[in-house]
Amino acid sequence: MRETRADTTLAVVLAIGLHLLLLVLLLLGVFWQRNNPQVQAMGSPISAELVDANALSQAMQRTLSERPEPAPPEVEPPPPAEEETAPPPQPLPTPLVEDAPTPPQPEAQEFIPEPDAVDQDEVTDQPTPTPTDETQVQEAKQRQDQIDLTERKRQEEAERKRRLAEQAEAERQAKLAEIRRQREALQREARLAEQKLKQIADAQARTASDTAAAAAPAGQGGQDTDLLARYQAALTQAILAKWTRPETVPLGARCRLVIRQLPGGEVMSAEVSSPCAYDEQGRRSIEAAVLKAQPLPFAGFEPVFQRTLILNFEARDR
């Protein structure tokens, strides 16, 4: 049973009352002894006169010799002893719940943040539970504590597994990110190597074309400049017909195209070369437009036809 404030107050009041009662009895005993007056004998004081027995007459001496022996003095009984006042019996202390021989709780029960809906005065008025009821309450509490401990361990184990799963997932994502980073780096290196090869091939093609143009004069087996200009204009119009200019590509922006084709205008490949003012979306769109425009113009332009053609494309609307 839990000790309440009312029980503590009652015990203090009883202890104070008992001490006051003992003090009053002690004072009464002292006053009773002081107020008991000594009894004095009444009458006149006794006077005596010493007389020599040999000086008395014969008759007086005979009378004195025949006098009876005095009776032995009466022994007064001793005064009755004061009866010691025994203190009133003190109430036995109420056994506390902490004194019960129960095993200690393995772990403290979690605090339940809920107000106590039971009135403490009503609990005080209730009869004290018997030892059997108290034992049952302790056993039920121990069972509940064991259940709480098991549930807490289960939750801790679930939380540990969740953290391990999150850690494993984070490591997996980190590995995937590293793989993607390495793959992108390899792709960038491959694109750079391909662009270098294209630049080398374009430079060689331009050098060969310039050398051939310089070796053969116009009209005598060389290229006709006017026909070449009209051929490039026809190619530009054919590509513009199949190209949708992105908004990121401004009008008038130039980009060099390297077109590899077969006689008849069939396109084998179309790639953007430097210099090119287009962004990535513009470059992909112009390459797709060249493939859509095949077969490219060929009839009438056989003298200026080239398998590897370099076209300086200018962005215009259709």
From TrEMBL:
Residues 70-94 have a biased composition (Pro residues). One of its GO terms (molecular function) is toxin transmembrane transporter activity. The keyword Transmembrane helix applies. The chain crosses the membrane at residues 12-32. InterPro entries: Tol-Pal_TolA (IPR014161). GO terms for biological process: bacteriocin transport. GO terms for cellular component: membrane. Residues 140-168 have a biased composition (Basic and acidic residues). Residues 60-168 are annotated as: Disordered. Keywords: Membrane, Transmembrane, Transmembrane helix. Residues 125-139 have a biased composition (Low complexity). It comes from the Bacteria. This is Cell envelope integrity protein TolA.
